[in-house]
Amino acid sequence: MTTDPDQPRRRPDVPFLWGASTAAHQIEGNNIASDWWTREQRMPGMEPSGDAVDSYHRYTEDMRLLADAGLNAYRFSIEWARIEPEPGRFSRAELAHYRRMIDTAKGLGIEPVVTLHHFTTPAWFARNGGWHADDAVTRFRAYIERATSILGDVKFVATINEPNMLAMMVMLARAAAEGKLGQWQSPTTEDGMPTVLPAGDESTGNILVEAHHTARDVVRAETDAAVGWTVAGAALEALPGAEHRLESERWIREDLYLTAARDDDFIGVQSYSTMTLGPDGVVPTPDSPDNTLTGAAYRPDALGISARHAAEVTGLPVLVTENGIATSDDDRRIRYTDEALRGLFAAQSDGVDVLGYLHWSLLDNYEWGHWEPTFGLVSVDRETFERTPKPSLAWLGEVARNDGAEQRTTSPVVEPVETTAPTTEETR
Ligand code: BGC
């Protein structure tokens, strides 16, 4: 599938996007027709999403917090399982709900960046064989055709979130169903998942590439939006003796998905940390008091590394669609973000075309089976759903009002990695 060479790449005429991101299943609550809802109810060690943070009803308040802080963009996803809860039965009311979200964003002066698929599918799609079913891409296309009916004036659309992580999840779910999870030899977490996440398999990756190209066609035909997908940056670093594996590991973890984006309008870059490659594969992150609440290494410089790599492989403008840190220490969130932005703007000075920066996440939310790792600029009381902005929200808003003037002028501060003195952080 190639793009018509006479069609210029779409580049909406908008200022630099400064904002935050969320995903429907992580914030809406009661997404009961989705495959994740089913999984949460039966998988040992997984906490359920339940009411999540009730953003399904409170999205206006959430967007207003973002706008009042000084941010101008909000990335959110629309939920396939709500729009098509049963095969072929599309809900006009749910489409109208998401259209209201778009109108609300626009009314507040916020650019909506809409993701069409963020990890979850309808439960019926999963039961039917998921992405490996013969009609998976056809089914996805039917959903995209309906979804685009509300997206005509949206300027940025992401088809699939982190297809590289999704391919891995699909592979592990299939292995779990066959009782074969043990083939990933690394130690497992309390949920029985490997601590070094394996790369997704190429056959699943290729299906997602086909789905992305199909969705891209529909988005281009039905809307004026710039279209892309959002890829998790691996920021792989090879230990001595492992350099020969770098190219193949990059391919399966990242470049397969970046290469498939070459005819898109932008590439979404998502970055949290780095990965270390040893001679036998990716090695676990050593325990350190410096690690974040998800056990990832504290590496704000990963964003610059991933943005440069994505731009180099795709040749596309970069939109940072996720970057953040799981921490209970908001000062640390500010330090991390400040340094990540400096790395991003250093890449920009070296020629990377950057369209915007969307922080993960606007809200403390449901982190796919767990509530403890908090990534939000805003905390939420899960009993009353009361929102409390953290200092990092005002800080990022101020950075946005100044269009990152300070972060654009100085190079990244390279802080020594702390290995001895404990910090307030603990790994889970
Ligand atoms: C995902 C988000 C997730 C975040 C933090 C990304 O992989 O797109 O849904 O919450 O990382 O783990």
Structural description of this entry:
- It is a single chain.
- The chain has 428 residues and is of the alpha/beta class.
- 38% of the residues lie in helices and 15% in strands.
- It starts with 16 loop residues before the first strand and ends in a 19-residue tail after the last helix.
- Bound molecules: beta-D-glucopyranose.
- Beta-D-glucopyranose binds at residues 23, 26, 161-162, 165, 232, 270, 322, 360, 367, 375.
Q: How can the largest sheet be summarized?
A: 8 strands, parallel, barrel
Distance between the termini: 43 Å
User: Poorly predicted ranges (pLDDT <50, ≥5 residues)?
Assistant: 418-428
Bound molecules: beta-D-glucopyranose
Q: How many β-strands, per DSSP? A: 13
Mean of residue pLDDT values: 94
Tally of individual helices:
14
Percentage of β-strand residues: 5-15%
Kindly state the percentage of residues in helix: 25-40%
